[in-house]
Amino acid sequence: MKFKIFRVGLVALILCGALFASPDVSAQWRRRAYTPAPQPAPQRGVDSRLMAMAQQYSGDRFQFEAQTPRGVRVYAVSRPRPEALRAIDSGLTELFAIAARHGYRQELNYSDYTVFIGRADRDRDSAGAYSPDIAIGAAQYAGSVYDKGGYVYAAGMVLSMEPAAFLVAEHERDFQRIANVARYEGEHIILYHNDRRLFQQTYDHSRGGGHPILQ
Fold this sequence. Notes:
By secondary structure, the chain is of the alpha+beta class. It has one domain. It has helices at residues 48-58, 82-101, 176-194, 196-202, and strands at residues 2-6, 10-15, 64-67, 73-76, 113-118, 122-124, 130-137, 151-154, 156-160, 164-169. Helix 2 links the parallel strand 4 (73-76) and strand 5 (113-118). It is globular and about 40 Å long.
């Protein structure tokens, strides 16, 4: 996944993340170009730069605003299913418990997080299994098993460390997969705020490694 780090301003763009990819080089990449519409996506409680970034990378307009039962802010292309909202909470709950066992204290509040739910660029992997994923540029994953010809498929993408935000693909079923993505994307954010050394060692999976990072 890609993420940008916001602090006072925009600092960096890094490709990293929990890739649910398969070596299917014949897959078609349906990257959508974002075209601004007359009515802007809701931005009542979200940083306008963060919203613009999510729209740019996904090609979507996030017209629906919601909140999970535990307080995660959610922006989605269609009305989020209750199962998806509960799954986001479930993944973060698991992550927060593990992070606390490691002695981490920062970014362990649900209200710290914003999640964007965008349309998937594919809904099945090369084996035919249900796998809603987002297509993003290959960058340092070029030439790896993940490379599909200049792009890779990712289940999610971290957009920002400050504020904590990530993008996931819309699911119609298998909501446990959304829980897993929330847990895995959240690991990078937790590590950035609590263990910068381990963050630097694990943010880029192009050289191997994967999730879960924290056990």
